[in-house]
From TrEMBL, chain A:
NCBIfam families: LptC_YrbK. The keyword Membrane applies. It holds the Pfam family LptC. GO terms for cellular component: outer membrane-bounded periplasmic space; plasma membrane. The keyword Nucleotide-binding does not apply. This is LPS export ABC transporter periplasmic protein LptC. Coiled coil: none annotated. Keywords: Cell inner membrane, Cell membrane, Membrane, Transmembrane, Transmembrane helix. One of its GO terms (molecular function) is lipopolysaccharide transmembrane transporter activity. It comes from Methylomonas koyamae. InterPro entries: LipoPS_assembly_LptC-rel (IPR010664), LPS_export_LptC (IPR052363), LptC (IPR026265). The chain crosses the membrane at residues 7-24.
Amino acid sequence: MTSQRNFQIFVYVGLAALLSWWLVQLNEQRDAEIKIAENSPDFFSVGYYKKEMDLDGLPKSELSAARMEHYKADGSTHLQQPVMTLFNPNQNPWSIKAESGIMAADGDNLQLNGKAYINRDASKTNSALTINTSDLRVKLASHFAQTQAWAEIISPPNRTEGIGMEATFVSPIHLKLLSKVKGRYEIK
Amino acid sequence: LESDSEQPIYIDSNNAVYDEKSQVSTYTGNVVATQGSIRIDADQLVVYLKDGAITKLVATGKPSRFKQLPAEGKDEMHGEGLINEFYPDKNLLIFMKNASVWQGDAKQSSEYIEYDTKNSLLKAGESNSDGKRVHSVIQPKTKKAQ
């Protein structure tokens, strides 16, 4: 009689264990789904274009990208083929292109990955300026950018390259090459 | 060499800063500037530009050194000064402060020496102070046959 009773107790305990294992599995799977949901974009846009004006209603910056994805988890915006345009009073705008980029939630820190191409056309007061580099970190509010990678500054017909660069894109324009600098100047 | 003045100017250094407003590039740290056979070594070299063309280079060092091969087969011309100013469009190099220029065994020292890098002509001495006036002209000697 007692062995039968023990067997019943054993079956009940086994069922309870099975049930709680199943519930744990269910919970883990739901957590995993939530995590995936959080780490996937909450909205995206194709052919993305954003224009920002300053307090006087004049264009301050433009940002366009082939594709943009926004992530709720950290509020960052991931961009493909971003083109950032920075406007400057009484000078031509600066155009910054890269393979991909991540705009932080604060909307100020932009990390450009892969090759980056920066350009400002010539104007009456300034010569054209082109910078080829990569892995550029841009601080939009202060129009400041820096990289640890190789960078080349071309102001035709002259050209200077080095490793590491710090650049200020608002007047007075200030470009610093941090090491292994090589300059080449044509004689007219 | 006579062709030096048509060559591009190359500058190597540890780091460099370009300030667009003043149109000045400052190269700092182990600076070596070359133009054809001209070579300038300095701690710092400031490049003054106008519409993208160099108007003046100012090399400073302890001292800043210069050398050039005036012509094939001639002795190299050497010079040094705490401050050397180079005007590529005028082929003019000015050595200032503890300045010396020498070629072979002939040497000139003064506080102010002008050197014509195209015609290898030298003018030493400050024009506005009689006390330190040194005048001399060195004609490049032909190198003795080996």
